[in-house]
Amino acid sequence: MSEVSARPVPLHVAIIMDGNGRWATTRGLPRVAGHREGAKAVRRTVEAAIAQGVRYLTLFAFSSENWRRPPSEVADLTFLLKHYLRSELNEMHAQGVCLKIIGERERFGPNLTAELTAAEARTANNSKLTLVMALSYGGRADVVAAARKAIASGMAPEALTEENFAALLDTKGIPDPDLLIRTSGEVRISNFLLWQTAYSELLFTNVLWPDFGAAAFAAALDEYATRERRFGARPA
Ligand code: FPP
To answer: Is 18 a catalytic residue?
Structure first.
């Protein structure tokens, strides 16, 4: 945690962005309209995180399970992601955002994979905010991939520790989230950062993702500031 004024500010906020579809259907709009508004909410939230002094923001932009959506919706989400990257990268770079991708980026094809990797390289030395985009990400797949790396390294079983296992995960070098937010009233983790959220504060809000922005982010941080974090311990 870092301190901005007297209030504890989470170092790392992770968000399950949910409710784009419902936002659109309640307005009689196609689902893609909700995803488009969702992309605007991503921009607002990155700005809010910087303004609040949060140093890491992880967004669940596309889960391993999202590939099972109809091909047209997968295409819409991929298009929006590509468009977001192209239209926002200069601004993010200027704001000091370091972009990191976790998940199986290769599944988006060689062109987008190359663009994502180039965006990471371009912003690698920025340090205002690390924006972690989870793309084709699944928490279980992350853990299994790390276990495979441990086995392939030939390390002795007793040499494996929580610390060196964490360094084999996609999130290597990124502190665990202090606060996990899920929008839209759903109360599930949905295979997001399973290992990394062991001690995260969980916050579920009814706000639909396209309505999320500075006010909802500030309210989440206010709620976080009231939580007493013990990490399993109890004061003597
Ligand atoms: C959930 O809404 C949201 C997603 C499937 C992923 C988030 C996608 C975006 C914010 C769009 C663009 C992304 C970027 C990074 C620019 P849902 O479709 O599951 O909503 P529902 O549960 O109401 O149907």
So the answer is: yes
